[in-house]
Every structure is written in structure tokens, then in C-alpha cells.
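Crash report, auto-generated. Payload:
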Amino acid sequence: MSSDLGAVIAKRSISLSKTYPVIGIFMALFAALISSLSGVIGNLSSTGIPAGASGTSPLNLTTALPLVSVGLQVLAAVIFSMPVLQLYVYDKNNGVLEYFLSLGMNQGDIFRQYLKAALLLASGLVGLETVVNVAAGLIAGVGAPALLGVSGLVVALAIPVVSSEAQIMMSFSSLQKQRVGSNQPLGMAFGVFMVIPAYIIPLVFPSLALTIDLLLASAIAVLSLTLYLSSSRLISREKLLP
Amino acid sequence: MPTLELSGVSSGYEGRPVLHDITLEAQESAIYVVLGPNGAGKTTLFRTIAGILEPYSGKVLFDGEDLTRSKEARRRVNYLSHFNAIPEEMTVRGALDFYAKIEGGSVDDVISLLNLEELKDKKVSDLSQGQKKRVSIAKVFLRERDLYLLDEPTSNLDPAVSKEIRDILLRLSKDRIVFYSSHNLYEARDIGTNLILVRDGTIGFFDKISNIKSKEYRVGIRTTTDISKIIDATPGEGGYYVLSVSKPEEAGFALRKLVENGVLVTEMRQLDNPLQDLFDDIYDEGTAVKKEKRRVEERE
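Recovered output after restart:
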């Protein structure tokens, strides 16, 4: 089996569907904007305008906004990698997965190549997000520790979330008895569900947000690893047939 | 010489068997034509041999290696399914490159072999069904294998391309095993050495095609003159004089008689395909068994 099959699948995915990647990039840029707003707000507060708009709110936007942007950036990665999951279903229906099986691959090999493709795309976008975040943050005057923290958290959350979501969706696609076309909405729903705490926690528990987000990332990483290890049992060969 | 052996194989989908206790052995390099009505289990048989479906019981061995478990053994097999399995968003060359990266082989060679030069830069999605089929077949020949499983390879193809494919397969079958399913009994007779007839998930018949005899030989003779007064032939279908004989040699005697009488014979061919008789018999028998089974079930 070619070692770069995952990369080829990633390229094919992008050429098959450009809508999701465009939305993903747009969301990533929007998230960077939100994150860099914290620097602007911080500058404003240092020039006399308090970070809590009314002065009575316990919410500190300079720390909350970068953390809220983490959720958006993770969701952008989920959306950006969605074409791989479309391609998986497309290839299954078109007999490509069946042909892979006939070439000597097993269901686990195939599953892992599509997962690799989804992670390659997600990593690409996370890399871009990091660059844009750092650049925008530095321009807006966000401190380096905050920028590093946000970037690290995006990586820690995005990779396990995309991995889990891709595996859940591929398993679901293969476990369905009837093709009802609900894979994409379901995949999105899982992605959003896993990211929701990252939006809420910084607003509800601002001081614990970073710790809770890291715990969340660890829990999703464990889920992802469990799914990965049981992938060959989750999907039988016949479920890859058109 | 490769050997394929199925012993007591039951296989199917979602726990429901489609193939029931199949046992067969292909010991010679040849084309094995697989015939059967729709839903008989031909595709399931191919998928099980290819190692795509795991049998519920029994074993599929290729040169003694288990095709279900051994990746190495499966790499000696190629399977062409009903589905083209060609990434449609790619160009023809791109799609073949995609598979060549996975399994090796020369894209230029298969482009030349299947006459795809004019199509190589076109997107697969822009091709006709027949052209897509050609590309799909091309991928099968990227690398030479020892066992080919071809599920209706010539469906959707024009006669010229069908012939080219059959010629390639005839060449390959000299030292390889080729399983070839078709609904065309004339094509089956022309290309096949052995016949496997699948009926209701079982093997209804497995023998050399040369051993299959017609119940009746009807010979069509095309001439420029009325021959009904010379031999016992009557004007019939397709402008032929139809001669019924009990064995093939009698057709030769009739031809000699016509030539001796100065008749110019422009064409002479067997009108009935012996495979048709066999197919009808086995299928009718299967239908009768099914009817009887249903009747018994209804009574119970």
C-alpha cells in the first residue's frame, strides 16, 4: 500500500468539495479576529476603559475572548476536514473501497487512510490558524503567553475532536443499513457537541477555563484512541461495499 | 500452475447466507465462465473468492493460502466489480495514476492496451458508461495477477472493445485462472473453457464446456438457391435454411451433398447454443424446486 495514500485522499477531498474548506478558512480568520480583539480590549482598558463593560461584570474579556476563539478554531478544523468524510461515502458508493479491499487492504487499513487524510487537513488548517493568530495577536498587542496558550489549546482540542468525529462518522456510515444521507449533519453535530464546552466554560468559569479545556481535550483524545483501536471491529468488510 | 480451491464455503451479507456450502476446484489455467440468473450469487461468489467477504464457514484457498486471511494471497488476485471504482473527479490518467501508486504498474502501458490515448486527459465524470468501463478494466491490468475475477467485464462495451478485452483474457488465461461472469451465452461459449453455473447460491453445474452437448442440433444454412429439394432443410429464421440433425457429423454430410449438387453455400452455423439448453434446464429445475418448497411451506 502506498504510504502517501492518506495525502492523496486529502487532495481528492479538497478537489471534490470546496465549500467546506472555504467556510473552514473563513471561520478560522473570524476566530483569529475575535482572539486578537482581546488585545485591543486590553489596550483600551489600559487607556481608561475597563475590560468588563459595566465594571460590575466578573467577565474578563481579555482572557475570555481568546478562549472562546479556541472553540471556533476547533470547529473550523472540523468543517475544513469534512470533505474527507464526504469522499469516504462517495468512494464507498462508487466501489472504490471495495476495490481497495480486493487489493489486499483490510477494513482497518482503509479506515486509517481516510482518518489520516482528515487529520492532515485539520493539521493544515490548525497550522494556518496558529500563524494567523500569532500575527494578528502581535499586531493587536496580545501577550505572547496568551498567544502560545491559545495555539496550544487549539492543537490539543482540534486533533482529537477531528479524529473522534471522523471515526464516529465513518463508523456510522458503515453501520447504517439504509443510506439515509445523514452522515454530514451527524458528523457536524458530533463536532459541535464536542466543542460546545469550549465556548461555555470561559464564560462561566473564566479562572478554570484553561484547565477544564485541557481536561476536555484529554477526554476526547482518550475517546479518539479507543475508537481507533477498535476500528477494525467497528466496521466489517461487507460494510465497505457499495 | 495456480490452483483455486473452495471447500464448504457459505457466505453472504449481514449474517444471511447467499452462498451455501460451495465446493469447487479450479486446477487448470483457463477461463471459467460463471453463469447464473440475476440474484443467483455470482457477485457474492466473486467477492468471497477475492477475500472481500469473509465466509461464514469453509475456506477459499489459492495455491494453499487462505484468501480471506492472507494479504499476500489477495495481492495475487484482481477483481473487477459491477461498480467502476474510478474516482470520477479525476482525469483518466490521474485515476489510473491513483491506483498505480497503490498497486504499482505502468499507466502508459494500460492506456495503450485499452486504447485510452484520446481519453486520458478527460475527466472520468465526462465519459460515457462504456468509456468508464474501459478505464475500470484498464486499472485491472495495471499489474499482472495470477487470478482474475471479472464480473461482467464486457457489459456496456461496444463489440470491438468487447472483442479486445476477450482477446486479452484469452492470452492471460494461458497461465492464469480467469473467472468471467456474463449473461451472454454466446460470449460464454466463445471464450470459456469451463462453465460454472450458479443457482440459488449453490453450484448447479461445473464442467468443461466441450462436454456440454446439445439436445438437438439445428444448423442454419445460407445459400443462393433453394436447397429444400436436395436436403431436408426448410426456410426459417433469419433467412437461413434450417436443418435439424441428431449429431454434428450429419451437418457435414449435408454440406457435402450440397456441394456435390453445385450449390454455393455462403454461410453455415449452429443455431442453438448448448449452454442455453443447460441454462434453461438448470434454471427450470431450480424454479421447480423453489415452487415445491413454497408449496410445502404454504401447506405447513
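Post-recovery validation: The first helix of chain B runs from residue 42 to 49.
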